[in-house]
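Researcher: I'm preparing a figure for a lab meeting and need a structural model of a single chain. I don't have an experimental structure, so a prediction will have to do for now. The sequence is pasted below. Please return the structure as C-alpha cells so I can convert it later.
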Amino acid sequence: MSTNLDNIMTATNLPNGNYLPIDLNLINNPQYKNLSIEAMMLHALYTMRMTCSIYNSQKEGTWLDENGVPYIYFSNEEAAALLRVSERKITNLKNALSGAGLIQVLRHGLKNYRIYVSNPKAPEKNVVVQLAFKNYTSAKTVLPVDKQETKPTSELSTVDRGADSATTNTQDLLTSTQKHLAKQSTSATNVTNNKDAANQQEQNLIAGLQARYAHVLPQQVFQRFLPFCEGDYQKARWFVDTIFKAKYASTQQYIKAGLPAEAEVLTFEANEYFKADIGDAIAKAIEQMYRYKTVKNPEGFFFAFMRGFFSEKIRQYLVDHYQLTPALKRTLSCVQLTLQQKNSRQKPLKAQKVAKKIS
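Model: Understood. Here is the structure written out cell by cell.
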C-alpha cells in the first residue's frame, strides 16, 4: 500500500532549518519535571528570538541593556497566536518558566517588558537521563543495506553515559535515513549525490535564515531577493546583513539627533511601517541594480537605498504618531541636514569621476 502524503520527508528534503529546537535538558533534568510541553515550546520561542537579539547586539550593539546583557521583546499576544492558546495561558506559562529560573521579566518604560532568557541546566552526573544521545558504549558501524547479514546484536549498556547534555552536536545514534544513505554506489553517483547534497544544504541554510528572521522580515522580503541569489546562502545572508546594517545606520542618525535609543519607533516590532513597505523598497532597489543595469556598485547602492528607506519610515512614523514638539522638530531637522550633507559630499566625488573619464 502506497502513502498519499504530500511533500513526504525523504533524505533530500529534511527540514533542518525549519525545526524549533527544544533543549533536551528540559526533559532530562528532574528540576524541570513539572514543566508542561507548552511551557517548553514557549521557552523554545524565546530562545529563537534571543538568538536574533544576540546576533543584532554583535552586529549593531542593540538589544543590550544598561549592563550589556541581551534581552528580547515578546508580547503575550504574539506568543498566544503562535502556540494557539489564550493570552491568560501564556501568562501562566511565563510564571512557570520564571519559577523554574528559565526567564526573568522586567518592566521597561511604561508598557514594555524585557524578557531575559536562561539556558536550561544539565542534569547531575548521577541522573539517568530519559532521552539521550551518545549514551551507549558499544561501537556502531554502518553496513550497506543491501549487503547486511544477520548478526547477533551486542547488548547495549544503559549505565555509562557519554554526554553531559543531550545536545544536537553530540548525537551519534543512526537514523533510518542515515542507514539508507549508507548504500554503496558508483563514483559517478557519489559525485552527483555530493552536488545534490551541497545544493540541499544551501537550501536548508537559506530556509533556516528565513525562519530565524521571520518575526521581523516578512516572507515577501525573501521573495524579492532570493531569485537573485541563485540558491547561494552567502548571497542571501549578504542581503539580510545589509538590511540590518542599513537599519542600524539610520537608527544611529536619529539617536545622534536626540531620539532615545530605546524609542519604540526604531524597532521592527513597534514600527509597522518597516514591515509594511520593506518588500516594495527592496523590489525598487533590485530593479535599479539588475534590470536597468545602471548601478556600478550594487552593494553600496543597496545599502544606501535601504538606509534611506529606514530613515524615511522612522520620520513618517514620528510625524503620524507623535506631537511635533520643538524638540522633535529639531531632531527631524538634524537628521534631514545630515542626509543632505552626505548627498552633497557624494556629488563632487561623482563629478570628479566623470571629469576623469572625459579627460
